[in-house]
Amino acid sequence: MNPGEYVKEAYRYILRSDFEEAIQCFEAAIAADPHDPEVRYRCSITYARNGRLEKAAEHAKEAVKLDGAKPEYRLHLQHLQAMMHVQEAKVLLEEETGPGSNPYRPVTLLQEAVRLDPLYGDAYVWLAIAHSRMNEHLPAIAAMKEVIALHPGDEGLKALMKDLQKSLRLYMQ
Q1: What is the pLDDT of residues 125-139, one digit of tens each?
Q2: Cα separation of 12 and 28, whole Å?
Q3: What domains appear along the chain, each with residue ranges and CATH number?
Q4: What does the pLDDT look like over 85-133, one tens digit per residue?
């Protein structure tokens, strides 16, 4: 098969929600033509949908390297990097705090995630949680205001905001 036929086959698998087979087809297309940024971009999207962010980022970086003029390639890479920062911060927040832990590392990662993708709501939510755990309630509330502005109909976010405001009131007493 030629690269275009592999890509068509990949989309057939995607329509059946078989992302693993789709990835295999995209990888075959890349092996046949490693300098096609569009195939790398689409392969990256499929890896991301399959939860394999590191492979997704690898192909997204290569797409940007091959054609840095396409804004969608760069935005996709930035979104993946933001997702990876959020994942790392979540792991750090879920670990027990100990003498060797740096409580500011999750905040730094999450601030970078927000900078990379200002429309990525999860980054704001976790940033609010990270600030709240450090008793930094005003920045936590500010982060929640940002995500509520992005998703004004989300009742879960509004409930989390009320919890943060309650924490601030308790902290002030």
Answers
A1: 999 999 999 999 999
A2: 15
A3: 1-69 (1.25.40.10), 99-172 (1.25.40.10)
A4: 999 999 999 886 666 678 899 999 999 999 999 999 999 999 999 999 9
Closest CA to 38 of 26, 50, 20: 26
Closest CA relative to residue 56, chosen from 20, 85, 24, 81: 81
Q: 97: which DSSP letter?
A: P
Place of tokens 């290569």: 62
Which 8-state DSSP code applies to residue 153?
T
**Both tokens assigned to 163:** 């919890």
Residues 37, 29, 68, CA angle at the centre, nearest 5°?
Answer: 5
Amino acid 14 reads: I
Indicate whether 43 pLDDT > 90: yes
- DSSP calls for 47-96: HHHTT-HHHHHHHHHHHHHH-TT-HHHHHHHHHHHHHHHHHHHHHHHHSP
From the list 16, 82, 69, 4, the residue with the least C-alpha distance to 42 is 4
87: which 2 tokens?
């994942």
| Stated pTM of the model | 0.89
